[in-house]
Amino acid sequence: MKRATATIRDVAREADVSVASASRALNGHANVTPATRDRVIAAANKLAYVPHLGARSLTMARTNTIGVVLPDLFGEFFSEVIRGIDRAAHAVGLQLLLSNMHGDASETTQAIRAMRGRVDGLLLMSPGIDADFLTAHLPAGLPTVVLGSRIEGEGHSSIAIDNEGGARAMVAHLVACGYRRIAMISGPEGNGDSDGRCAGFRAAVADLLGDHDPVVLPGDFSEDAGYAAGAAILADRRGIDAVFAGNDMMAVGCMAALSAAGIAVPNGIAVAGFDDVPIARYVQPPLTTMQVHIAEMGTRAFETLMALIASPDAPPPSPQTLEPELVVRRSTRLSG
């Protein structure tokens, strides 16, 4: 038997508050105490309450708005993702509602909650989420596409990057160029992209160079982290002749540190990145990287979401994996 759809009155009764208080809590109004908000949210989750979606199913009305939840709204990578989504949304006359969960997976729930009843579908990028998280926190019936994580399980659609394969390809390129002591600047621990790239790096240097204990410097995908890693390499070179950064922005920061110390790239130390953000082709020397086609990933995610919205009863497509492409520029080419 199909479960009856919970109403706002059911949530208010479960939380022992007025309907008005329940509504204010769910809509993020400031004049609600934290204890009341938590109680109402717990009740809504328990009852699988979805604001407005039930009423919209009767009237067939839509918001003509797509929700986008990203770890950050700043930086070239996320700007490119948004550009690809916005380009596709504008072409069909839809608006975007953006939310930033600051790279903290624990804040994803709040960001999703803020979208309830306000969007026709959701594009979600959050580190560390899985099918169980989506089942527990997504409003029932809300079409959703996850970017950057491979989600297995019925009812979910995802688009991810082959980070491990991309890292292996980059190490193979560096080895083919003659580099033998390759260090890596990793991204945040627990981040799916970072973990995959680090795993691919470790496997490749072990297979191709017999290096089972490579130098891996901590990073967080920022230019500052790349600069700090470059300074650490200068302080203790350990014979390092090439650096593979887990993303382009850390590679740019590392190149800046090397340049400030008078170390030529690539003749002193080669540097490579991952993503191919726009700035990668304009730094000096231009950066060798793994091209992800970031904007196109955003566009593909949007188109996949539109298909889910148009055919809500159709099974979601299988998880999609994007294969990054090696782009060789002067930051890894040794000159005469």
From TrEMBL:
It comes from the Bacteria. Residues 6-60 form the HTH lacI-type domain. Residues 313-336 are annotated as: Disordered. Keywords: DNA-binding, Repressor, Transcription, Transcription regulation. The keyword Secreted does not apply. It holds the Pfam family LacI. Gene3D superfamilies: 3.40.50.2300, lambda repressor-like DNA-binding domains. InterPro entries: HTH_LacI, LacI/GalR-like_sensor, Lambda_DNA-bd_dom_sf, Peripla_BP_I. One of its GO terms (molecular function) is DNA binding. PANTHER family: HTH-TYPE TRANSCRIPTIONAL REPRESSOR CYTR, LACI-RELATED TRANSCRIPTIONAL REPRESSOR. This is LacI family DNA-binding transcriptional regulator. It comes from Sphingomonas floccifaciens.
